[in-house]
Amino acid sequence: MLVFALQSEVELCEEWGNARPEEGSEHFFAYVLDNNLPQDKKFLHGELVGLGIHLMAQWQGRDLEPILGLMERAGLEWRAGEIGVPEAATTATLQDLPMCAETFGYPYSIINRRARR
User: Fold this and answer.
1) pLDDT band of 83, cuts 50, 70, 90
2) pTM for this structure?
3) 74 phi and psi, to 5 degrees?
4) Helices (H), the chain
5) Which of 44, 54, 43, 45 is nearest to 79 (CA)?
6) Structural contact between residues 99 and 111, judged by C-beta atoms closer than 8 angstroms
7) Measured between alpha carbons, how far is 83 from 102 in angstroms, rounded to an integer?
Protein backbone atom coordinates (compact mmCIF):
# COMPACT_ATOMS: atom_id res chain seq x y z
CA MET A 1 0.00 0.00 0.00
CA LEU A 2 2.85 2.40 0.84
CA VAL A 3 4.57 1.75 -2.49
CA PHE A 4 1.25 2.29 -4.31
CA ALA A 5 0.74 5.59 -2.46
CA LEU A 6 4.24 6.78 -3.34
CA GLN A 7 3.78 5.74 -6.97
CA SER A 8 0.46 7.60 -7.12
CA GLU A 9 2.09 10.71 -5.67
CA VAL A 10 4.83 10.65 -8.30
CA GLU A 11 2.28 10.12 -11.08
CA LEU A 12 0.17 13.03 -9.83
CA CYS A 13 3.19 15.34 -9.71
CA GLU A 14 4.18 14.20 -13.19
CA GLU A 15 0.67 14.97 -14.43
CA TRP A 16 0.77 18.46 -12.90
CA GLY A 17 4.30 19.04 -14.18
CA ASN A 18 5.63 20.03 -10.76
CA ALA A 19 5.67 19.07 -7.08
CA ARG A 20 2.80 21.35 -6.04
CA PRO A 21 0.40 18.46 -5.24
CA GLU A 22 2.77 17.30 -2.52
CA GLU A 23 4.34 20.59 -1.52
CA GLY A 24 2.68 23.49 0.25
CA SER A 25 3.41 26.01 2.97
CA GLU A 26 4.64 23.25 5.29
CA HIS A 27 7.41 22.38 2.82
CA PHE A 28 8.25 26.03 2.17
CA PHE A 29 8.62 26.44 5.94
CA ALA A 30 10.97 23.43 6.05
CA TYR A 31 13.11 24.82 3.20
CA VAL A 32 13.55 28.19 4.89
CA LEU A 33 14.05 26.59 8.30
CA ASP A 34 16.83 24.42 6.89
CA ASN A 35 18.80 27.60 6.16
CA ASN A 36 18.34 28.82 9.76
CA LEU A 37 19.52 25.59 11.39
CA PRO A 38 22.98 24.77 12.70
CA GLN A 39 24.90 23.31 9.75
CA ASP A 40 26.84 20.89 11.96
CA LYS A 41 23.68 18.92 12.81
CA LYS A 42 21.55 16.83 10.46
CA PHE A 43 17.76 17.02 10.52
CA LEU A 44 15.22 14.69 8.93
CA HIS A 45 13.14 16.33 6.22
CA GLY A 46 9.93 14.65 7.41
CA GLU A 47 10.37 15.97 10.94
CA LEU A 48 10.93 19.52 9.68
CA VAL A 49 7.87 19.21 7.45
CA GLY A 50 5.90 17.89 10.45
CA LEU A 51 6.85 21.01 12.41
CA GLY A 52 5.81 23.04 9.38
CA ILE A 53 2.47 21.24 9.20
CA HIS A 54 1.80 22.20 12.80
CA LEU A 55 2.80 25.84 12.44
CA MET A 56 1.18 26.44 9.05
CA ALA A 57 -2.04 24.81 10.28
CA GLN A 58 -1.98 27.32 13.14
CA TRP A 59 -1.52 30.18 10.65
CA GLN A 60 -4.52 28.82 8.72
CA GLY A 61 -6.63 28.67 11.88
CA ARG A 62 -7.17 24.93 11.47
CA ASP A 63 -8.41 22.55 14.14
CA LEU A 64 -5.07 21.12 15.23
CA GLU A 65 -6.38 18.06 17.07
CA PRO A 66 -6.88 15.80 14.01
CA ILE A 67 -3.62 16.93 12.42
CA LEU A 68 -1.48 16.49 15.50
CA GLY A 69 -3.29 13.27 16.42
CA LEU A 70 -2.45 11.76 13.04
CA MET A 71 1.22 12.71 13.35
CA GLU A 72 1.29 11.23 16.84
CA ARG A 73 -0.33 7.97 15.73
CA ALA A 74 2.13 7.75 12.83
CA GLY A 75 5.01 8.10 15.29
CA LEU A 76 6.34 11.27 13.64
CA GLU A 77 8.50 13.40 15.87
CA TRP A 78 7.73 16.99 14.91
CA ARG A 79 7.98 19.17 17.99
CA ALA A 80 10.91 21.58 17.73
CA GLY A 81 12.32 20.52 21.09
CA GLU A 82 12.18 16.80 20.41
CA ILE A 83 13.88 17.08 17.01
CA GLY A 84 16.49 19.58 18.21
CA VAL A 85 15.35 22.69 16.34
CA PRO A 86 16.43 25.79 18.29
CA GLU A 87 13.61 28.19 19.15
CA ALA A 88 15.59 31.04 17.57
CA ALA A 89 15.64 29.15 14.25
CA THR A 90 11.86 28.66 14.31
CA THR A 91 11.26 32.31 15.17
CA ALA A 92 13.62 33.54 12.45
CA THR A 93 11.99 31.23 9.91
CA LEU A 94 8.48 32.44 10.69
CA GLN A 95 9.69 36.03 10.34
CA ASP A 96 11.60 35.34 7.09
CA LEU A 97 8.98 33.13 5.49
CA PRO A 98 6.72 35.75 3.83
CA MET A 99 9.72 37.55 2.28
CA CYS A 100 11.25 34.24 1.14
CA ALA A 101 7.97 33.12 -0.43
CA GLU A 102 7.94 36.23 -2.59
CA THR A 103 11.69 36.21 -3.29
CA PHE A 104 11.81 32.56 -4.31
CA GLY A 105 8.44 32.58 -6.07
CA TYR A 106 6.81 29.86 -4.00
CA PRO A 107 3.29 29.03 -5.19
CA TYR A 108 0.50 30.91 -3.40
CA SER A 109 -0.23 29.68 0.12
CA ILE A 110 -1.10 30.97 3.59
CA ILE A 111 2.38 32.49 3.64
CA ASN A 112 1.39 35.04 1.01
CA ARG A 113 -1.64 36.07 3.05
CA ARG A 114 0.61 36.53 6.09
CA ALA A 115 2.98 38.70 4.05
CA ARG A 116 0.19 41.20 3.38
CA ARG A 117 -0.60 41.73 7.07
Assistant:
1) very high
2) 0.86
3) -80, -10
4) 2-16, 25-36, 45-60, 64-73, 80-83, 87-103, 110-115
5) 54
6) no
7) 28
